Amino acid sequence: MPGIRTAAQAKAWLEHQGKSVQAFAREHGVDPATTYQVLAGRKKGRRGEAHKVAVLLGMKEGIIVDEPIAQYRDPDVIA
Known about the structure:
Blueprint: H1 7-17, H2 21-28, H3 32-40, H4 48-56
């Protein structure tokens, strides 16, 4: 990625692609309200879905983990 985008740059990037925030959210399977909040700066994208949105918009470097990592379980222990 050439650099981290600001919120204004991310909005311009969406507009350049001809995509609404709603369309972007649907395309990536994220909540549109969270996407609007990240773009408005009300959510910083530190964790959870806001993190995913910020990474997808190029506003933050990071990885997206779709499923939580399962806790280690000892197969010898019966739950």
